[in-house]
Amino acid sequence: MQSQYVWDLPIRIFHWLLAASIPAAIVTGMIGGDLIEWHGRLGLFILGLIIFRLIWGVVGSRTARFVNFVRGPRAILDYLRGEWRGIGHNPLGALSVLGLLAIISAQIGTGLFANDDITFQGPLAYLIESESSNHMRSLHALLKYGLIAMVSLHVVAIIFYVRFKRENLVRPMLTGRKEIDPNLVSPEITQGNLRLVRVGRSAISFIVSAAISLTVVYVVASGLAPSVTQSLSIKAPFW
User: Fold this and answer.
1) Spatial distance between the Cα atoms of 44 and 158, rounded to a whole number of angstroms
2) For the chain: N or C, fewer Cβ within 10 A?
3) Per-residue pLDDT for 62 more than 90?
4) pLDDT greater than 60 at residue 158
5) Which long-range contacts (C-beta less than 8 Å, at least 24 apart) are formed by 151-160?
6) What is d(CA 41, CA 155) in angstroms, rounded to the nearest whole number?
């Protein structure tokens, strides 16, 4: 086995920030009261993370790009038979990533339009009718259980891999490196003369991706059109 640089720093930062913010958002939402404001802020923070991950899935490193780890049914069958070989997310892991991103996106989307007429109003709730906003709130509350189930499944999978496959999935997400078959080692990553070029490109991609994410979050938190929200005397509740 040979050590391979698998997960880039932006992916690792995204992963651990998401791992910390989702439980915090769930807890603050369930407790409510004065913590509902923090629930909203965490929702916006997670929105920024998801937008960044979607962009990074296009411009990031090889293992971060969706095109390199989202595979079809044949690859999944090969993996289940033990015939699949590769680095990064395996075919089932790729489905887990897509599922988690999808349900988080749905949860954030419904939260942006939700309104309980008491303590919480999403920054985009004014764009739809009150009845529709209340429906979004109900859907937001329902999707919470799906999100908890997906996160729990993710944790169970990590435990399964450690216990039965003797593969630690947490360490590579901390260090970025993983022990893999030497035949799968990428010369593109291991050659020093290319590493500096890749680091430079990654830095630019990271700055652009982060800037886009922050801009979108700012615009959404401001209600898309601050002048309109001000004229209607509607205040974005958690910006």
Assistant:
1) 27
2) N
3) no
4) yes
5) 151/22, 151/23, 151/100, 153/96, 154/96, 154/100, 157/93, 157/96
6) 25
Structure tokens at 146: 């799906």
Q: Is the pLDDT of residue 19 over 70?
A: yes
Which residues are paired to 4 by β-bridges?
Answer: 178
Of 73, 52, 56, give the one whose Cα is nearest residue 64.
56
List 115's β-bridge partners, or say none. 121
What residues have CB less than 8 Å from 40, skipping those under 6 apart?
A: 111, 120, 122, 237, 238
Q: Which two tokens stand for residue 154?
A: 């993710």
CB 135 within 8 A of CB 116: no
Residue 66 near residue 93 (C-beta atoms within 8 A)? no
Question: Which bin fits 117, alpha (ψ -120 to 50), beta or left (φ > 0)?
Answer: left
Helical (H) or strand (E) element with 198 = helix 192-221
Whether 91 and 76 have beta carbons less than 8 Å apart is answered as: yes
